[in-house]
Amino acid sequence: MIARGEGQDPDRLPVAPGTGWPGDPAGPSTPVARDPAQVAALAAAAPDLRELEARQSVCRACPRLVAWREDVAAARRRAYADQRYWGRPVPGWGEEHPRVLVVGLAPAAHGGNRTGRIFTGDPSGDWLFAALHRAGLAAQPTSVRAGDGQRLLGTRMLAAVRCAPPDNRPSVEERDACAPWARAEVAAVLPGLRVVVALGAFAWQASLGLLSGAGVQVPRPRPRFGHGAEVALEGPSGTLLLLGSFHPSQQNTATRRLTAPMLDDVLGRAARAAGLPAGPRGGSPAPEVG
Ligand code: SF4
């Protein structure tokens, strides 16, 4: 544990809301959830998606995860020793009215927890964004830091759990505490949504729970996860396709359990089912910031 408090290097503290980090949705007056009941109340009462992102990004409801994300931000990895870490929950990111939603497990300690943007700045993200770009769902093939000009096209991404967990394993209590953030986000984007891509078995189960909570009919027993699994679900706004992919973790990609053509196949199917143009598109990159 790194001691926090007076006298600590301010560069090793989590980024304070509204202090200029590119894409920071929060400000000094954004309300902070400090327990699961407050997460549920603040998520349900967020007036729009931007405010929901802001509230997610300052949450402190899980003591173990708050301590872990801030300790990692203070200690930093040698390769990033000269960088400031975000050290806060990583909110959902992408289009406000997406046709495709990509669901992951949780931010990486030195990826999203460092850059403040989901799947940005870690090897899994390198794989994923290259494939999203090839499928026409991201403007650039790389995603290295917030403010780098990257932009999702017709697509949004979220993590089922918003804080980086030790060993990539949130507890059941932490998963449940965080669920209202994702539930509110899925409910907000559901009307235009056509496809959900779940990266890994945890995200598959989380997606089914989130969709069921948003009024989508999920069969019992629940459909099983597998790479390339595909289930058509009926929702309040029409048919929705749930697609499964192995997670682009280093463990999966290094062992070739997941190859680039396998990921391309799933994301290409997602783009086509969503009625989005297939193949690489430049789009209009977001302006470089920071
Ligand atoms: S995991 Fe979710 S509920 Fe827990 S502190 Fe992070 S954002 Fe809040």
From TrEMBL:
The keyword Nuclease does not apply. One of its GO terms (molecular function) is uracil DNA N-glycosylase activity. Residues 91-267 form the Uracil-DNA glycosylase-like domain. One of its GO terms (biological process) is base-excision repair. It comes from the Bacteria. Residues 1-12 have a biased composition (Basic and acidic residues). The keyword Metal-binding applies. CDD domains: UDG-F5_TTUDGB_like (cd10031). Residues 1-33 are annotated as: Disordered. InterPro entries: UDG_Type-4/5, UdgB-like, Uracil-DNA_glycosylase-like, Uracil-DNA_glycosylase-like_sf. Keywords: 4Fe-4S, DNA damage, DNA repair, Hydrolase, Iron, Iron-sulfur, Metal-binding. SMART domains: UDG, UreE_C. Belongs to the uracil-DNA glycosylase (UDG) superfamily. Type 5 (UDGb) family. PANTHER family: TYPE-5 URACIL-DNA GLYCOSYLASE. This is Type-5 uracil-DNA glycosylase. It comes from Vallicoccus soli.
